[in-house]
């Protein structure tokens, strides 16, 4: 309804449930600001970056994102914006409506690298790194996944040993977003005291981060290995306030929350392309949107997009209230990424051969979501998290 007249609004194909009415003026302002940023700085170039498999001037982009307050935006203090979880989720949605690679840059910086330092770091670590990272003057990455250990991080082989008062790190991490340009890496390693996290400046001897090429997904994202060959760190490089897997897993939960929202952005972009195309493309003498099977596809996609948005908003309100549990984050990540990928695949069928062209965003989002589906926890792992919550039995141990 229109507040002024009481008359029904014209339906918005991208928001049949009028979910916009559930957002506060501040939340709508965040959405509009990030959307304008993408329209100006990234949307005109993203297909070219994806095709070339590069993110040109990633540091410049990070700096502009920092100026907008999007890096670590949901953290308090140290130059961070201190905004709400819903604000952060909305920003992730708009960034991923452009491309998953752009959202990943922000997520890894804020919800993994910065969050780890903010939540578990010493005051010196926080003051040294967080203001620079919030401003986009320093880039961070998060070293957990290894070549042979993804879903089972407790079996990681990266090792940190004491040598006098120093620590010495040896090992490898794999599929690390931002690693090739990072100034600091949060690295998790086995020690005699259990798993510990370390704040590792990337200019130290023995640290290297070769870029991973030949990706067919997240091509507009810088991904690398982390190679640690006798990297020597002072005693105060360790994150003091956490031991064991609690540290990295809590960081992953932060990142997964952003993905719950971000995946909807990719889905919305693909769905919008399908709706527009269905109105313009003619076959058998009329637009293909006039055929029942096409309308059935569009209706199903609209339903799943609306449900996913309601779920994200509900979980965001819970996170802001301090009541959100990790299994509920798994619920959201499992559902929204899976349904977003299906929306992209169905949109591709509506566009036909044009669906595989980078002249449209659909195949790019579809390829990106193939990575989003399995990073920060595979479908199998999130399914088993929910299974354990339902039965009290851990099936993956």
UniProtKB/TrEMBL annotation:
The Acyl-CoA oxidase/dehydrogenase middle domain extends over 141-231
Residue stretches making up the Acyl-CoA dehydrogenase/oxidase N-terminal domain: 24-137
Cofactor dependence? FAD
Entries under SUPFAM superfamilies matching the protein: Acyl-CoA dehydrogenase C-terminal domain-like, Acyl-CoA dehydrogenase NM domain-like
Q: Where is the Acyl-CoA dehydrogenase/oxidase C-terminal domain?
A: 244-389
Sorted keywords for this record are: FAD, Flavoprotein, Oxidoreductase, Transit peptide
InterPro entries (UniProt xref): Acyl-CoA_Oxase/DH_mid-dom, Acyl-CoA_Oxase/DH_mid-dom_sf, AcylCo_DH-like_C, AcylCo_DH/oxidase_C, AcylCoA_DH/ox_N, AcylCoA_DH/ox_N_sf, AcylCoA_DH/oxidase_NM_dom_sf, Glutaryl-CoA_DH_mitochondrial
The text of the family note is: Belongs to the acyl-CoA dehydrogenase family.
Q: What is this protein called?
A: Acyl-CoA dehydrogenase family protein
């Amino acid at each position: 309804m229109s507040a002024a007249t009481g008359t029904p609004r014209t339906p918005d194909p991208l928001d049949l449930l009028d979910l916009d009415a559930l957002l506060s003026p501040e939340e709508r302002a965040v959405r509009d600001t990030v959307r304008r940023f993408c329209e100006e700085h990234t949307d005109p170039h993203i297909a070219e970056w994806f095709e070339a498999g590069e993110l040109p001037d990633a540091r410049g982009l990070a700096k502009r994102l920092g100026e907008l307050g999007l890096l670590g935006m949901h953290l308090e203090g140290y130059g961070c914006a201190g905004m709400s979880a819903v604000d952060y989720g909305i920003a992730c949605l708009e960034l991923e409506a452009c491309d998953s690679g752009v959202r990943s840059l922000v997520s890894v910086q804020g919800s993994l690298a910065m969050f780890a330092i903010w939540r578990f770091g010493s005051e010196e670590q926080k003051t040294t790194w967080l203001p620079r990272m919030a401003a986009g003057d320093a880039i961070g990455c998060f070293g957990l996944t290894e070549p042979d250990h993804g879903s089972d991080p407790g079996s990681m082989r990266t090792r940190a040993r004491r040598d006098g008062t120093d620590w010495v790190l040896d090992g490898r991490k794999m599929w690390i977003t931002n690693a090739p340009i990072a100034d600091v890496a949060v690295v998790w390693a086995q020690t005699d005291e259990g798993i510990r996290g370390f704040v590792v400046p990337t200019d130290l001897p023995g640290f290297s981060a070769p870029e991973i090429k030949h990706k067919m997904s997240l091509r507009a994202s810088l991904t690398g290995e982390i190679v640690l060959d006798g990297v020597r760190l002072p005693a105060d490089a360790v994150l003091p306030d956490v031991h064991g897997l609690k540290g990295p897993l809590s960081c992953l939960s932060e990142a997964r929350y952003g993905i719950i929202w971000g995946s909807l952005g990719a889905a919305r972009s693909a769905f919008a392309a399908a709706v527009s195309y269905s109105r313009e493309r003619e076959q058998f003498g009329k637009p293909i949107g006039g055929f029942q099977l096409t309308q059935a596809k569009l209706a199903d996609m609209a339903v799943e997009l609306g449900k996913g948005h309601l779920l994200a908003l509900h979980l965001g309100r819970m996170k802001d209230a301090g009541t959100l549990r990790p299994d509920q984050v798994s619920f959201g990540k499992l559902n929204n990424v899976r349904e977003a990928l299906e929306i992209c695949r169905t949109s591709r069928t509506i566009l036909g051969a044009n669906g595989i062209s980078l002249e449209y965003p659909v195949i790019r989002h579809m390829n990106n979501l193939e990575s989003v589906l399995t990073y920060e926890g595979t479908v199998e792992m999130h399914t088993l998290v929910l299974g354990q919550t339902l039965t009290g039995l851990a099936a993956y141990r």
